[in-house]
Amino acid sequence: MDERQIFRDSSTTEIRTCSPFHYIDPGLINQRKIFSIFGATFLEVYDKNRSTGTDHLSALKNDHLLVSMCIDLCKNLAVKSLSKAIIEGPGIGQLVCSTEQLHGNENVWSEDRCRNKIVVPFDYTKDVYIEYSTEHIFSSTTKSELSEGTTNSLIGEIRNIDDKKIVIHPLIIGAPTYDHPRNNDLIEQLVWSGWDQYEVFPEDIKEFSQIKYLDDTGPSEWVEYMRSLPEQTVKEKIAEILGDTTKKDWGGELNDHFSANLTLGHKRTTGAFLLKGPARFEEMQPRHLGKNADQIYRLSNSPANLLVVQHCHTIGEAVRATLRAFAVTPHDPRYYCLLDGQDTFRLLKAYGKI
């Protein structure tokens, strides 16, 4: 059983649809760079609120204060995720804030300066790295993760761009977490969510929730039906379930369908859908979504709180990673959902559309 299915089985709709503060556990902090980039007013606010003690606990509190302030400022400044920045064309000095999969580098234990390659989830012509001084690493856990390779959240500044690579100097690196005072009422429920939080499943959407009362269907039942079901028909049937009207497709659209009639966690919300029919009846990969997966990029530019990718067949993990990279940033996380062929079939069946 994969991690996604474990998350689906072990959590609840209530947990998956809550909106916690997405925090970065401080493992690497470059204070000089932070104060240099964010300026005198930022420093004054930090200085006014920081602990004046010299003990370890005071230093730890100040680290957490600094990270929280940086995340809040990134939201106020509408800082882009790394994926969005590189598709739109990155610039020297540009800030990025996102959660990324990193390759490991054992030199973090022995070198004063080190770099880790970032795993860009879609096809991209350049290599992307973070480069940092190891003296700024304050957590042995972070050093281990940078050595072995793992998923980390980061705030960083793009410092070098050439024909082959992009280099980012991080201000902050750490594990994505929800262990923060702003989440006091949710911490026990969210302690294991970390990387998976903000993914929701069809049954978590109130208007699709009847799907949970259907037994899973085998390939013999859904494959033949979905193989011949046009994308336009899927759009019309989903719109009927939501009580929406459909719009005519055009080349410059951000999404295939937009709805303001969705409910997550007892709150009405908006959703944008990317729909893929059976023209290619095979597992969806980023190459099916345009150059640099630009269809997901356009979807992410929709003013929606929930991004949904629907496909007539199965959906590969690389598509999930790409969707998540655009949807969930530490400073401005949005929900995302994958609706594969089997779940699409079950949804239509649950609401009498088959």
Q: Could you characterize the architecture of this molecule?
A:
The protein is built from twelve helices and twelve strands. It has helices spanning 3-10, 13-16, 31-49, 56-76, 82-88, 140-148, 187-190, 219-227, 231-242, 294-300, 317-327, 341-350, and strands at 23-24, 28-29, 95-102, 113-119, 127-133, 151-161, 165-174, 176-177, 257-264, 267-276, 306-311, 335-339. The strands form three sheets. The protein has a five-stranded mixed beta barrel, surrounded by four helices. Strands 9-10-11-12 form a four-stranded mixed beta sheet, with helices on both faces. A two-stranded antiparallel ribbon has the order 1-8. The longest helix is centred in the first third of the chain and has 21 residues, at 56-76.
Task: List key phrases describing it.
354 residues; 12 helices; five-stranded mixed beta barrel; 34% helix; alpha+beta; 12 strands; four-stranded mixed sheet
Question: How would you concisely characterize the structure shown here?
Answer:
This protein has 354 residues and is α+β, with helices and mostly antiparallel strands. Helix content is 34%, strand content 22%.
